[in-house]
Amino acid sequence: MKIPKEGDFITIQSYKHDGNLHRTWRDTMVLKTNENSIIGVNDHTLVTESDDRRWVTREPAIVYFHKKFWFNIIAMIREEGVSYYCNLASPFVLDNEALKYIDYDLDVKVFKDGEKKLLDVEEYERHRRNMHYPKEIDHILKENVKILVDWINNEKGPFSKEYVEIWYNRYHQLKK
After folding, report:
1. Active-site residue among 23, 53, 54, 128?
2. What is the mean pLDDT of the chain?
3. pLDDT at 1 over 70
4. What is the CA radius of gyration of the chain?
5. Which of 1, 36, 95, 128 has the highest CB neighbour count under 10 A?
């Protein structure tokens, strides 16, 4: 796969552990790529669910994917401030079709006031049993929750105000 460059549009596909397609985002604009990560933006992006329901994202969001960490981060930019939705997920892979990852159900929501909430624990436990997540995956995900919380608490990477401003401004430059 040719590495997408700044200003290119890619598709993002989220799968479940059993290999079923979970969700697809069309036309995510790439803001930056390097050997380990991709930063992009969704702005009124078409999302298709596994049951073919479709919806469009309401606000611009900076998305961050990494090849080594078991999470991805969505910084949702609203008038009242930035909030975050973090998916516990496999590191991404990129092929000719899309950026792809496995969604492991657990999510961390960070509200604009900094409050954090772990979401979908019951869904994770149900899928862990039904889809037979290996113990290694369970351990990796729990360790990555700790890394993610450290990033949040210390405003690392996508959780810094500067990060969101830099990439949101870059998006506006590219879309002209």
Report:
1. 23
2. 96
3. no
4. 16
5. 128
Binding residues for Mg(2+): 87, 103, 105, 107, 120, 123
Q: Which residues pair with 76 in a beta bridge?
A: 61, 83
Q: Which token pair is 152?
A: 């949040």
Residue 106 sits at φ, ψ, to 5 deg, of -65, 140
pLDDT in tens, 25-55: 999 999 999 999 999 999 999 999 999 999 9
Which residue numbers belong to the known binding site? 87, 103, 105, 107, 120, 123
CB 27 within 8 A of CB 47: no
Domains and CATH numbers, the chain: 9-174 (2.40.380.10)
Beta strand 37-42 pairing with 46-49: unpaired
Q: Tell me if residue 23 is catalytic.
A: yes
Question: Considering only CA atoms, which of 88, 64, 74, 75 is closest in space to residue 144?
Answer: 88
Q: Rounded CA gap, 101 and 79, in Å?
A: 30
